[in-house]
Each structure stands twice: as structure tokens, then as C-alpha cells.
Design brief:
Layout (H helix, E strand, L loop, with lengths): L4 H12 L10 E5 L2 E4 H11 L11 H27 L6 H13 L5 H8 L4 H22 L7 H10 L5 E2 L2 E9 L2 H14 L3 H6 L4 E8 L5 H6 L12 E3 L2 E11 L2 E2 L2 H31 L1 E4 L29 H9 L6 E2 L26 H6 L1
Antiparallel strand pairs: 1-2, 1-9, 3-8, 4-5, 4-7, 6-7, 9-10
Organism: Pseudodesulfovibrio alkaliphilus
Pfam families: SurA_N_3 (PF13624)
Keywords: Isomerase, Signal
Length: about 375
């Protein structure tokens, strides 16, 4: 999705070598005047390195590439933030507070703040990352998504071209009944077959556990496959012995292999087409936004060789990682001047609409186009 950004940043790097207009220390880039700070790069790089294999010591050149990739993502995120603000739909304080509360709710009381301390995570930097993430989501779903419409003919063609993707192999729905003794499991199965209420079994038999699972027949273990041989839906296997105790299998349902009908496959087709069109719409918007932007950046963050390919994950949280950066490079960044602003194309051009002309509103095997479905 950032396929053109690497080329754009590389061009800026070449131009940046032509001058050295000093700027405030700690600012590694400016996007239409808005600063991107070294602290943001350091925070993102720490997150980026969490999954790195222990003992890995990156070269200075690799660090430049890594910081260049992160800088490119931060530039894109800042462009998105500015676009939302221009449309008066920027991420609000209320949205930030709600998102942070949702994250904190996943931790026991006080554990989130303790985690920040133990992981050396700066709360201000974390909140800035959260804001950028929320901005990207809002841009995709409130700005780009309304432009995307799916014509029924596109959906039909996608379904026909990828019919094998909608094949469902034979599957079984099984109730697994487990307990500490063969006798208890046997009685629990008898009660279930009589009453068909597996939730009641844990009440009637305190030591019994039940689990309703759906599994492809090809993925059955040899033990389960043998136990279910000759068992019809509504019947149970004998009581089996395993290392955890005793268990029996009740075959609830056997679903034959089938290909989803067009109407059943439509939600999957719709999601795939929407995702593809969102990517295309974002690429088109980004091309225009970069051409009009005024961007200054530190040449220390850019490799002297070909700029690495950027990962197409604007909607995702940055990959977590860890790893310390050599002090000499950090000192270079802190002392580095910024190049002159590099202007793109004529800023007076209007915004790109990005809307596609849609086809007819005919139904796709009983399903309306996504536009009609949403308006409904």
C-alpha cells in the first residue's frame, strides 16, 4: 500500500543533500510544518524490535533502514491526521479516552501502569501511537469506506474465479463429555441423550466438563476417528480413557462437504472486494497527498542505497519489538539539521474524490449490492 512512498522518500533524500537549513534539535522530520520527533522514532523502534532474535546487533546501515521505514510510516500517519483535521473529523479527546479505557480494562487494576514501568514505555509516546492508530482506522472507515461500492457483477465474477475458496470439507459437530470416572461420564452421556441439555450436566454432575466443538473430519485424531466409526448423529461413542481421565463423544451433527452458494458466499466476497478497493483508494489518496505535501527530514535516517520496501499495513498496530540502538547514531540524529522543505505538486489542486462509478443495482443471487445493504 505504501508502494510509492519509498520512491518519494528516496527522492527527498537526494534533494536533502543539497542544503542544510538548521532546525530545532530532536525534530527528525516535518510534515507540512508539523514536527516528527526523535522520541517517536525511538519509541516505535523499541516496539519494532520486541520480536527480534536475542543477540542480534544491527549494523549502522540496517539501523538507518529500520529508522527510515518507521519514519515513512510516521509521515503517512501524520498526513492522515492532518487530512482528518482538515475535514473536521480528527480524533477527539473523548475517543482517545474511550480507547485507552478499553485497553486498560484488559488489565487488572494498576497492572497497565505497572506494565508501562516494567517495559520502559513512555505513556505520552504510547498515547501518540494510539492516536495515530485511531486516526488510520477513522480515515479508512469514515473517509475511504463510503467511497467503496461493490457492483453485483464484480461479486459474481469474483465468486466464479475463486470457487475453490468457498469449498467446505466434511465436518462434525461433537459434544465432548469428560469426567474423573468411567461411571460418571457414562451417566452424564445418558442424561444428555435423554434431555439434550449439556449445560445442565455440569450442575447435575459437578465433576463433569462438556465442550461443543466443530471439527473437520480429516483433522480427527486416530482415537476419535475410531471411536466415532459407525456412530450416527444423536448417538454417542463408548467411554474413552485418556491421560486427563475419561471422555465420551456425542455426535451432534455431520455436515457433508459442499460449496457455498453465491448468497452464502456473498459476505466473504464483499469483504475481500472491499479490502482490495480500500487498498487501491488509499494508494491513490497517498499519491496525491505526498505530491502536495511539504516534507523536511534528516538525511541520517535514509540509507545511501535503495530504500527498503515498506510493509503495507496502515491499519495494523506497529509490530512489537525490542532492541537498543547504538549511541553514535542516536547522537547523530540529535545533532542533525533538517533539509529545506521540499514542495510537491501544485497545492491548489482540489482533493481527489476517489469514487468509482458503479454498475447497476441488480441483485447478486438474492443479495443486494453492498451500497444498498448499507443504506438499508
Amino acid at each position: 500500500m505504501f508502494r510509492n512512498l519509498a520512491v518519494f522518500i528516496l527522492t527527498l533524500a537526494l534533494l536533502a543533500g543539497c542544503s542544510n537549513t538548521a532546525d530545532e534539535i530532536g525534530v527528525v522530520a516535518r510534515v507540512n510544518g508539523a514536527p516528527i520527533y526523535l522520541s517517536q522514532l525511538e519509541f516505535q523502534h523499541d516496539q519494532f524490535q520486541v520480536d527480534a532474535v536475542g543477540g542480534y546487533v544491527p549494523s549502522v546501515e540496517n539501523l538507518k533502514n529500520e529508522y527510515g521505514e518507521i519514519l515513512a510510516e510516521l509521515i503517512v500517519q501524520e498526513l492522515v491526521v492532518q487530512e482528518l483535521e482538515k475535514r473536521d473529523i480528527g480524533v477527539s479527546d473523548h475517543e482517545m479516552l474511550k480507547a485507552e479505557e478499553e485497553v486498560r480494562a484488559d488489565y487488572p487494576e494498576g497492572a497497565f501502569d505497572q506494565m508501562l514501568v516494567e517495559e520502559y514505555i513512555d505513556l505520552k509516546a504510547w498515547r501518540l501511537q494510539l492516536r495515530n492508530h485511531l486516526a488510520m482506522r477513522k480515515f479508512f472507515y469514515q473517509v475511504l469506506r463510503p467511497q467503496i461500492k461493490i457492483d453485483y457483477r464484480e461479486a459474481e465474477q469474483y465468486y466464479r474465479d475463486r470457487i475453490s475458496d468457498f469449498y467446505l470439507p466434511e465436518s462434525l459437530r461433537i459434544l465432548v463429555v469428560r469426567g474423573p470416572s468411567r461411571e460418571i461420564v457414562g451417566k452424564a452421556v445418558e442424561r444428555f441423550l435423554a434431555e439434550r441439555d449439556h449445560l445442565d450436566l455440569t450442575t447435575a454432575f459437578g465433576e463433569v466438563e462438556t465442550r461443543d466443538v466443530m471439527i473437520r473430519e480429516e483433522r480427527l485424531s486416530a482415537t476419535w476417528k475410531n471411536a466415532l466409526t459407525g456412530v450416527a448423529p444423536g448417538q454417542a461413542s463408548g467411554v474413552l480413557t485418556d491421560r486427563f481421565g475419561f471422555e465420551a463423544l456425542v455426535l451432534l451433527e455431520r455436515s457433508p462437504a459442499k460449496v457455498l452458494e453465491p448468497a452464502q458466499a456473498y459476505p466473504l466476497v464483499e469483504n475481500a472486494l472491499v479490502e482490495r478497493k480500500l487498498h487501491d483508494a488509499f494508494d491513490a489518496w497517498l499519491d496525491t497527498a505526498m505530491a502536495r505535501a511539504r516534507i523536511s527530514l534528516s538525511s541520517h535516517l535514509l540509507s545511501s542505497e535503495e530504500f527498503p520496501q515498506l510493509a503495507p499495513l496502515p491499519m495494523s498496530d506497529p509490530e512489537d519489538s525490542d532492541g537498543a540502538e547504538p549511541e553514535p547514531l542516536m547522537q547523530d540524529l540529535q545533532d542533525e539539521d533538517l533539509s529545506d522543505d521540499v514542495s510537491g505538486a501544485d497545492e491548489s489542486e482540489g482533493d481527489e474524490s476517489g469514487e468509482d462509478e458503479m454498475g447497476s443495482e441488480d441483485e447478486f443471487n438474492g443479495q443486494e449490492s453492498i451500497n444498498d445493504a448499507e443504506n438499508g
